[in-house]
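Extended Data, record DNA-binding transcriptional regulator, AcrR family
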Amino acid sequence: MSLEPPRARDAEATKARLLQAATDEFAAYGIAGARVDRIGAAAKANKALIYTYFGSKEQLFDAVMDTHVARVLDQVPFTPEDLPGYAGRLFDFLLANPHQLRLATWHRLERSGTGHEPDGLRDSMGRKTDAIAAAQADGQVTAAFTPEDLLAFTLALTNAWMPTSPVAATGQDTRRHRAAVVEAVRRLVT
């Protein structure tokens, strides 16, 4: 019988597993329906570590949202002079990352009014509307709408055919819908 020394805990790896398991759980059930027991089991970690590392189930959800908002901001470059191209890239990202919109929906349903906004989101939205205003001033984008409206319309059009949308059907032709989204945004900004 060999006695191996106890394994050292890798706190960062455990946090990463908890965040991934929490992403899946929150995307499926929201905050109220999520269970820390299932998150801990899926992460192969003691559920008490959720409270140690994140404080509460709500704070774990906030950490998940912060991670996912940072990811989309990092991976989908914003181009105010080419909002149709941005809409196409965002469409592709959201299609490849279905949890993104589900988490955002749960955030609006269960965390609005709580004082927590995902890290970087407000600043990102401000930078985007400022960039659209500059593109409008340069004549690259129509000034028929406010920068805030153009951004909101672009985001809404991009989300219209996502699986979380009530109009999206299974087996949809995503290439055709992507092309329609890009064309709709192109028409909006010209």
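Summary. Residues 57-189 form a domain with the Tetracycline Repressor; domain 2 fold (CATH 1.10.357.10).
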